[in-house]
Amino acid sequence: MYKIAFTDIDGTLLGPNRDLTPATISAVTQLKDKIPFILVSSRMPRQMYHLQEDLEILDLPLIAYNGGYISHNKKGLFSVEIPTAIVEKIVQYNQRDRQERVHLSLFHADQWYVEEMDYWALREQTNTKASPRIKSNKEVIELWKKEAVGAHKIMCMGEKEKIDQLWSYLEDEFSDQLHLYRSKDTYIEIANKKISKLTGIQEILNQCFPQIKLSEAVAFGDNYNDIEMLEGVGLGVAVANAREEVKAVADQITKNHKEDGVAISLKNIFNTSLRNNSQE
């Protein structure tokens, strides 16, 4: 019997309008008193709270930054950061040539900083329903040095050719220290190499649900950063729109995220499981 569910958000849980559909809300709220439903994303926590509220799971922890930060009741439970010295090197590289510069968003816990509200910042704000603070990368680094903290995520956004160039630099310089994830040709998400969505799940089970084993967990995903998570849990489910590499490691494939794939799968897995359990 499966006792807990974890899900990616973008491309997995959200529907065609990048929001929760009535079917998804219904499926989760029907299970919420029996099965913990945990959001797992590369997003910052503040970009996930409104989803938790709609699903009536604000009392549950969430996994942000691909496993780099765990928040519960809007307080940090677990944190693995990119050292400020590395953040500074990346910022300096990006500023070497104005023509080659890309947008850098710097994240720590519920802080999101951008240098200006450019096309990329506005797009991310629209997609995630959260707003950044305007502060230069240099000022953010100085602030974090004083506070002795680092970045939970660096989001790099720009034209494909510029992102290609930055990717090559990051791989050459930091491949042993940083986890680099390219969700699109125009995006690079950077986190500490020590973390993943699976390490975040293991940490939540250890701290919040010690009675539940990893083999009793279900996880849903669609993209490369979900592969380790789907392989590691008891039941890994890919949505139909998932990357082929993700489908290859999944135990099950449900419908497209635009067709309420997670909601359908939740009902099939947990209603049957709960019903069988009640008959034992």
Tell me about this structure.
The chain has 280 residues and is of the alpha/beta class. The chain is built from 10 helices and 14 strands. Strands 8-7-6-9-11-10 form a 6-stranded mixed β-sheet, covered by helices on one side. Helix 4 links the parallel strand 7 and strand 8. Helix 1 packs parallel to helix 10 and helix 3 runs antiparallel to helix 5. The longest helix has 19 residues. It starts with a strand and ends with a helix. The C terminus is likely disordered.
Keywords:
280 residues; alpha/beta; 6-stranded mixed β-sheet; 5-stranded parallel β-sheet; 14 strands; globular
Compute the separation of the termini in Å.
12 Å
Q: What is the succession of H and E elements?
A: EHEHEEEHEEHEHEHEEHEHEHEH
Helical percentage: 25-40%
Q: Structural class of the secondary elements? A: alpha/beta
SSE inventory with pairings:
Blueprint: E1 4-7, H1 22-31, E2 37-39, H2 49-55, E3 62-64, E4 69-72, E5 75-79, H3 84-94, E6 103-108, E7 111-114, H4 119-128, E8 133-134, H5 137-147, E9 153-157, H6 160-174, E10 178-181, E11 187-192, H7 197-208, E12 217-221, H8 227-232, E13 235-239, H9 244-249, E14 252-254, H10 261-279
Parallel strand pairs: 1-2, 1-12, 7-8, 12-13, 13-14
Antiparallel strand pairs: 3-4, 4-5, 6-7, 6-9, 9-11, 10-11
